[in-house]
Amino acid sequence: xxxxxxxVVHLTITxxxxxxxxxxxKLKIGELAEKSHVTKRTIDYYTNLGLLKVExxxxxxxxxxxxxxxxxxxxxxxxxxxxxxxxxxxxIITRHSEEVDIQELRLKIQNLEQDVSKVLGKMSHLDxxxxxxxxxxxxxxxxxxxxxxxx
Length: 151
Fold this sequence. Notes:
The structure is a single chain. The protein is mainly alpha-helical. The chain has 2 domains: 1-83, Multidrug-efflux Transporter Regulator, Chain: A, Domain 2, CATH 1.10.1660.10; 95-151. Helix content is 72%, strand content 5%. The chain has helices at 2-18, 29-36, 40-49, 67-80, 85-123, 128-134, 137-150, and strands spanning 26-27, 55-56, 62-65. Strands 1-3-2 form a 3-stranded antiparallel sheet. β2 (55-56) and β3 (62-65) form a beta hairpin. The protein starts with a helix and ends with a helix.
């Protein structure tokens, strides 16, 4: 019971001072340091280098997204392998741009799927024989496969 009340108090404080949403956990620098097993000074240093993302509250508190714990582990693992912080930063930027590219591709795929569904819906009204006469055999086979997949 006591543990639950501590969590409720923490959420209340977070909402009061940070204006943060409940669904997206934000960590203060000390909490991030504890979770990732690095010092607050190290977090400050990485933040100043642009290796970590930070949000500032209206009262100038620094809040870190939960994903920064994973990023800190990544940084520390790369350092242990002998990588420079500059090389690590380049890797992080590359990883981020790849994530953005994947998100853009997913959006394009969704749009294409919607377009294909519309076309296939219109095509279901057409006579298949007429369609077969106007396109190549390969195209007709592909369209039949798409219709089967969409259904």
